[in-house]
């Protein structure tokens, strides 16, 4: 009971001390969230009649968002492994923030599913009522909920350690949870998300046993990039360094390795499509290099540029990593759109003719509203949850 009272007092004190800029920022996010999510309410009442999705393209921008946010969530857990598994104590100041980022991203992924289904209550049938243990949808949805529980447990145990209320056993639990979160996120959660697409034989770009591996590498790159980006923005806002210059350099090296693996798989995914000799593969290649060339270039040019930049030490600084992280996140978001939404535009029967899909405002607005709502929640939680912020004086 005393811990609860202390936590409540800490939250009230921090919220009371927050300045006018904080509350104006929260108000702007609240307005964006309200306007955007009103589109989800309309979809709940009227269905997807206003969207550009169809029976030919049933998985639109929201399912691309699902795969993207699941990857961000999985990749963010890498910070916990670096701290507890590899003894990188210099990452401690952003340890709790990384857990919060992971939780917000898994919420975003589940929100995308709920809005795509149209009726969120229908979506909950899969893990609780429609228990088909051989279904990839059942396995994935169950793994998402298990991941939420794991991250919440890791957050609570980390808070107890931060406020000094955890004994030897509590610290050991926090360490174990921080370590096992990574293999669970990558092997159980994100690999099975990739498997959902990989087992679909009708889609040329999906049906490959390497797709789960590809999901894992891109998750590590995008999730770690998001943690770096949030760390840098937080440092600018708080006007203090959360991590040292040496840590930024290490972050850049880690991100470079993740990008090398991602670039390798992306490149050969596209090359195999081009030289496969199959009708579907060649048509998919023409889509990427024709109607949707911009998305293709954002994906490939962005990843190559980010990879090359991280190979130079001058880009492994706070300013350099800010640019690199933004590029990585946008590039991998483009890949998710290419893989999921655009890859569906190859007609299963030639009699269907050319299939078109560009997400409209009725699909994009709820996604923006969801992001704004979770950004608002993250912002408030960083005020009410004890964090491990430390000042590191550096000179760039």
Descriptive notes:
With 396 residues, this protein is mainly α. It is built from 15 helices and no strands. The protein is globular, with a radius of gyration of 21 Å.
The gist of it:
With 396 residues, the protein is mainly α.
What's the total number of strands? 0
First-last Cα distance: 46 Å
Structural class: mainly alpha
Mean pLDDT score: 85
Structural domain count: 2
Tell me the overall shape: globular
Which range best describes the helical content: under 10%, 10-25%, 25-40%, 40-55%, 55-70% or over 70%?
over 70%
Q: Identify the CATH architecture of the largest domain.
A: Up-down Bundle
The protein's oligomeric status is single chain
Query: Any idea what the CATH superfamily of the largest domain is called?
Result: Formate dehydrogenase/DMSO reductase domain
Q: Measured on Cα atoms, how large is the radius of gyration?
A: 21 Å
- H/E topology pattern: HHHHHHHHHHHHHHH
Provide the CATH top-level class of the largest domain: Mainly Alpha
User: Under CATH, the topology of the largest domain is which?
Assistant: Formate dehydrogenase/DMSO reductase fold
Fraction in beta strands: under 5%
Supply the number of helical segments.
Answer: 15
pLDDT < 50 stretches = 390-396
Q: How would a textbook summarize the main sheet?
A: none
């Amino acid at each position: 009971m005393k811990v609860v009272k202390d936590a409540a007092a800490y939250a009230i004190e921090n919220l009371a001390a927050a300045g006018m800029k904080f509350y104006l920022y929260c108000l702007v996010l609240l307005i964006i969230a309200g306007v955007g999510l009103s589109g989800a309410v309309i979809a709940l009442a009227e269905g997807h009649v206003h969207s550009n999705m169809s029976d030919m393209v049933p998985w639109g921008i929201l399912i691309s968002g699902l795969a993207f946010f699941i990857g961000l969530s999985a990749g963010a857990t890498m910070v916990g492994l670096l701290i507890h598994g590899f003894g990188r104590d210099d990452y401690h100041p952003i340890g709790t923030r990384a857990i919060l980022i992971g939780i917000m991203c898994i919420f975003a992924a589940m929100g995308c599913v709920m809005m795509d289904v149209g009726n969120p209550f229908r979506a909950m049938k899969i893990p609780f009522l429609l228990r088909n243990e051989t279904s990839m949808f059942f396995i994935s949805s169950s793994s998402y909920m298990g991941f939420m529980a794991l991250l919440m447990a890791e957050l609570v145990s980390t808070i107890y350690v931060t406020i000094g209320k955890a004994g030897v056993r509590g610290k050991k639990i926090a360490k174990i949870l921080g370590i096992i979160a990574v293999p669970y996120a990558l092997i159980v959660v994100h690999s099975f998300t990739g498997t959902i697409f990989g087992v679909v034989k009708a889609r040329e770009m999906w049906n490959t046993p390497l797709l789960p591996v590809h999901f894992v590498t891109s998750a590590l790159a995008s999730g770690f990039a998001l943690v770096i980006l949030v760390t840098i923005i937080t440092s600018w806002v708080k006007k203090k360094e959360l991590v040292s210059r040496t840590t930024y350099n290490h972050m850049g090296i880690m991100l470079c390795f993740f990008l090398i693996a991602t670039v390798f798989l992306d490149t050969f995914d596209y090359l195999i499509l081009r030289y496969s000799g199959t009708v579907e593969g060649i048509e998919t290649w023409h889509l990427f290099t024709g109607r949707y060339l911009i998305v293709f270039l954002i994906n490939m040019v962005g990843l190559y540029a980010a990879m090359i930049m991280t190979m130079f030490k001058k880009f492994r600084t706070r300013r350099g990593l800010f640019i690199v992280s933004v590029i990585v996140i946008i590039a991998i978001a483009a890949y998710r759109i290419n893989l999921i939404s655009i890859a569906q535009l190859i007609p299963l029967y030639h009699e269907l003719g050319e299939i078109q899909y560009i997400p409209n405002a009725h699909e994009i607005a709820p996604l923006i509203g969801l992001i704004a709502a979770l950004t608002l929640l993250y912002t408030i939680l960083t005020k009410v949850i004890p964090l491990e912020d430390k000042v590191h004086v550096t000179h760039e």
